[in-house]
Design a protein that fits this description.
Layout: E1 5-6, E2 15-17, E3 27-37, E4 40-49, E5 53-58, E6 61-62, E7 65-66, H1 84-92, H2 96-107, H3 112-115, H4 121-130, H5 138-149, H6 160-184, H7 189-198, H8 201-210
Antiparallel strand pairs: 1-6, 2-3, 2-7, 3-4, 4-5
Helix pairs in contact: 1-2, 4-6, 4-7
């Protein structure tokens, strides 16, 4: 069963996907408004999908997955351009030797919200555990690549094997980052256990391997 997102959890500018129609690609929420439906005020969300154009959703709950975390903190929305834009700028400038280095920097990056020392250890751990929702399955790999690059369709630039190789190295670096956070929170086992109860299965497995 698909978990429905309440309208209040979706905001202008959020990136979303539709679990029943992954072929639509990622979408950008371009409008959230109150509209009369059968004489009653109701929320209407307009989304522009990469491969399906504009779609509108009306009601108190809709079947969309919000790609951005609901736990907003500093570092969640840094930068206006998609990450891959920096690579494209290097290519246009003819700096081909720097392209692969920049690609690795983008694909291996642990999100700032997971690392920012101005965020609490609890928040950094929560955001880190959330990253374990991605895996090497087709859907998990593509969603991860979309988030890392900011691209609607990463397969227009990378093939599946390339994405898998990048993801494996990202997972290795994520494990190292997670180990440091676990050490930082070793005196707050109660909070860590609570976060694990809410975390993806992959996160709980990763923590178990560290013990």
């Amino acid at each position: 069963m698909v978990a429905l997102k309440t309208m209040t959890t979706i905001e202008f500018g959020d990136r979303v996907t539709h679990p029943r129609f992954p072929e639509w690609g990622s979408g950008a929420v371009i409008k959230v408004e109150i509209a009369p439906i059968n004489g009653e005020p109701s929320t209407r969300v307009t989304v522009r999908f990469a491969h399906a154009g504009l779609k509108k959703f009306i009601g108190d709950a809709i079947p969309l997955d919000v790609m951005a975390s609901s736990h907003a903190m500093p570092g969640d929305r840094e930068g206006k351009k998609p990450a891959i834009a920096a690579v494209e700028e290097l290519e246009r400038s003819g700096l081909t030797q720097a392209v692969e280095q920049k690609l690795e920097e983008i694909m291996f990056a642990i999100p700032l919200a997971c690392r920012d020392p101005f965020n609490t250890a609890e928040h950094r751990m929560r955001r880190t555990l959330e990253l374990y929702k991605y895996d090497l399955s087709g859907k998990g790999l593509m969603e991860w690549a979309m988030v890392q690059t900011g691209m609607d369709d990463p397969l227009t630039r990378f093939n599946r094997t390339q994405l898998e190789d990048y993801f494996k190295q990202f997972s290795f670096l994520l494990k190292q980052h997670l180990a440091k956070l676990v050490q930082e929170m070793h005196e707050d086992k109660e909070t860590l256990d609570r976060l694990l109860d809410e975390a993806p299965v992959g996160a709980r497995r990763a923590i178990a391997k560290l013990k």
